[in-house]
UniProtKB/TrEMBL annotation:
Keywords: Oxidoreductase. It holds the Pfam family GFO_IDH_MocA. It catalyses: D-xylose + NADP(+) = D-xylono-1,5-lactone + NADPH + H(+). It comes from the Eukaryota. This is D-xylose 1-dehydrogenase (NADP(+), D-xylono-1,5-lactone-forming).
Amino acid sequence: MTSEPFTLRWGILATGGIAKTFTKDLLVDPATRSATDIRHEVVAAASSTSASHAQDFLTFLNLPTAKAYGSYAALVSDPNVDIIYIATPHSHHYANARLALVANKHVLVEKPITVNAAQAQILHDIAREKGLFLMEAVWTRFFPLATEVCKIVEEGRLGEVKRVWADLSFWNDVEREFGVGHRMVNMDLAGGALLDLGVYSLTWVFQILYHILPAAQKGNPSVASSITKYKATGCDEMTSMILTFPPDGAHGIATTNIRVATDVNPEHPSPAPIRIQGTLGDLTIAAPCYRPTSYTLIPASSASRGTPASFSYQTVEHEVPGGGHGMFWEADECARCIRDGKLESEVMPVEESVAVMRVMDEVRKQGELVYSTAFESVEWGE
Ligand SMILES: NC(=O)C1=CN([C@@H]2O[C@H](COP(=O)(O)OP(=O)(O)OC[C@H]3O[C@@H](n4cnc5c(N)ncnc54)[C@H](OP(=O)(O)O)[C@@H]3O)[C@@H](O)[C@H]2O)C=CC1
Ligand SMILES: O=C1OC[C@@H](O)[C@H](O)[C@H]1O
């Protein structure tokens, strides 16, 4: 017996770069990724600039019947919208997500969920109190490759994982490309490498050394870190973190940088950005780590370590179907959770977003990186 797919009706809050990429993915036919139980409909978009800006966005995406709003408040009041996708700069995630939750909308909010852990915890509390779904848009976790890698580690195929290295860095001509106003470096938009890119390094470390552990063994890591600031604005341009996780002291080494690149030159091989090291061997994931499509298993020499013959050297390639970017998998997760009455995703639980934010808070404390009092506050946007 076939039943009608569940339809999730989206409202897009902000009309910048990632809002366009995400909305395009919502429009990819779910059948191209063998998803027949859910579908997505984009019913409205809002721009804080003007309604005509929102209309241009919808026209660009060929959505003639969707409604265009000139304010975020109007969008979250639309009774035809089930879920709001928030695609504003980091500084505004908390206020925008809160606005949507208070208006009784489910929320998918771009990474990082907020500027600090206290704000993320408040969003979590509001969502739970109101019975609404809330998730940070860490799209990487919903790639089939990420699921497969977690399963390999959970099954113990790498032995005991002792260390995870994770880097996301891009070479940029920082002064010329970003100056002082670009969201990547603008302190008034909570810019900087850590919140924008380091969140991916941390998500890989957390997936392996935190997420897949049994609840009784999970705990917050201790943090040692270093930040180098961009002189022109004071945001972080290089951040390196060493996290030590319970229960056995495994290390997660998470780095991010906007002056040197993970993938130095596509014409020459670079070291893998993600390296999961177990007692029986390694699993590496090729760049880009936020859109992972290839991993390699490297067995340790078996004579001394007892690595089984079944653990053979191999590279496994995946592809992103349907001509999409790969953001549709996180959207599918939202649809299934909401259909099933779940308030959060088991793959990206809010509690874990809060735990990652706590690490970022500590790293910023150690590096004396503080954003404006206004949007570090939990009153921001009230
Ligand atoms: N998942 C991913 O792969 C990616 C995620 N991101 C995340 O998405 C978010 C947005 O990034 P991106 O789309 O690149 O940014 P853009 O600058 O391209 O767009 C941000 C949009 O936010 C709205 N906005 C509201 N208030 C402000 C403000 N004070 N200053 C600037 N813009 C404002 C604007 O839309 P309007 O005028 O319509 O209101 C603007 O177009 C960030 O959180 C970033 O981390 C970014 C890139 C990739
Ligand atoms: O989320 C992101 O992933 C890809 C990067 O290019 C981008 O700057 C970042 O915001």
